[in-house]
Specification:
Structural class of chain B: alpha+beta
Strand order of the largest sheet of chain B: 1-3-4-5-2
Strand content of chain A: 25-35%
Strand content of chain B: 25-35%
Order of helices and strands of chain A: HEHHHHEEEEE
Largest interface: A-B, 31 and 31 residues
Number of strands of chain A: 6
Oligomer: heterodimer
Shape of chain B: elongated
Helix content of chain A: 25-40%
Radius of gyration of chain A: 19 Å
Radius of gyration of chain B: 17 Å
Chain lengths: ~170, ~150
């Protein structure tokens, strides 16, 4: 097994679906994003969005939830390559986040992940930086969010994998 | 002046808006992680200490959500905000640990009026969240949509 296969490079995985209930939308918004269109149906009707909709941060956080659930699933990729299995570490961040369409109350959102690339981190031997595209779609198939996330992964420096490229 | 304090017209390139303090509790970290990011270093003090993060630490998504709240209280709730189309980047620079007191600042780096929707403008902000030791924990560049004063009749 190659790291490409383990990370699912070029492969889109459906992480699962989540229903955004009105009460959950409001509870998240009260804590973190108390703008009227995330808190109150009537106020939302008068707003640019027209209906109660989830904070964009709520949508992003549920992507993380579904991503972790998928990793814990028995169907998740099991390392069969040389050396010890890669170990996922912290994430340095993400880029190019777009909130493309509001997530309206009651909508069922389906979340996906696509492996984009991985490269050794020159400054941290034994670590590789994996980038993945995160996306989610509503019940009509419209995309509601996308972003490119990255995560540091500790990999076994077996010669078969090439090891880390020395830094400059 | 009537209407919200901050309209598109008031958000001037080069100016900085300072945000209020937020102290993060262990209970808040655990509650957020239990719902959205149930990894050991976000759920348990011991596991956090044993991890690369060095203590019970907030999910990066929790840090983003807390920063959103700081921006809401700092200016968005008293503005003509029409939501956000997205962000260029978020960088999680350092762990946010239980007991940390966070502050933040947003510097306006660009603005333009919408070509398709008169009365609406895009404002791009570079922001940072800082802990009580003056260390940057979060950096982001985000864009917000705001109505002009003329559009809200104020």
């Amino acid at each position: 097994m190659t790291l490409d296969a383990f990370f699912g490079i070029g492969e889109t995985v459906v992480l699962g679906s989540h229903v955004f209930e009105p009460e959950a939308i409001k509870a998240f918004a009260r804590k973190f994003d108390p703008q009227p269109f995330h808190l109150d149906e009537t106020a939302a009707e008068r707003s640019v969005f027209g209906r109660l909709c989830a904070s964009g941060w709520h949508t992003a956080a549920v992507w993380m939830k579904k991503n972790l659930e998928k990793n814990a699933d028995p169907s998740a990729a099991v390392w069969t390559g040389q050396g010890s299995a890669p170990v996922f570490g912290p994430s340095p961040g993400f880029r190019n986040l777009r909130w493309l369409k509001p997530v309206y109350a009651g909508e069922t959102i389906t979340f996906t992940r696509t492996g984009l690339a991985h490269r050794p981190v020159a400054s941290r031997p034994g670590w590789t930086l994996l980038t993945i595209r995160a996306e989610a779609f509503d019940s009509t198939g419209d995309k509601v969010i996308e972003f490119d996330s990255s995560v540091l992964v500790q990999v076994d420096q077996a010669p078969a994998q090439g090891g880390a490229v020395p830094g400059p | 002046m009537t209407g919200p304090r901050w309209a598109f017209d008031d958000l001037e390139v080069g100016s900085t808006i300072t945000l209020g303090e937020k102290t993060v509790t262990a209970d808040e970290i655990i509650a957020f992680a239990s719902e959205f990011d149930a990894q050991p270093m976000h759920l348990d003090e011991e596991a956090g200490r044993a991890s690369i993060l060095g203590g019970l630490s907030a999910s990066g998504w929790h840090s983003c959500a807390m920063f959103m709240r700081m921006m809401c209280d700092g200016f968005i709730l008293d503005s003509t905000s029409q939501g956000s189309p997205g962000l260029e980047y978020v960088r999680w620079k350092r762990p946010v640990l239980a007991g940390d007191t966070l502050t933040g600042a947003c510097t306006i780096v660009a603005k333009r009026v919408s070509k398709s929707k008169p009365g609406l403008g895009f404002v791009t902000v570079k922001s940072a969240m800082t802990n009580q030791r003056g260390e940057t924990v979060l950096e982001l560049e985000n864009t917000g949509m705001f109505l002009t004063r003329e559009a809200v009749g104020a």
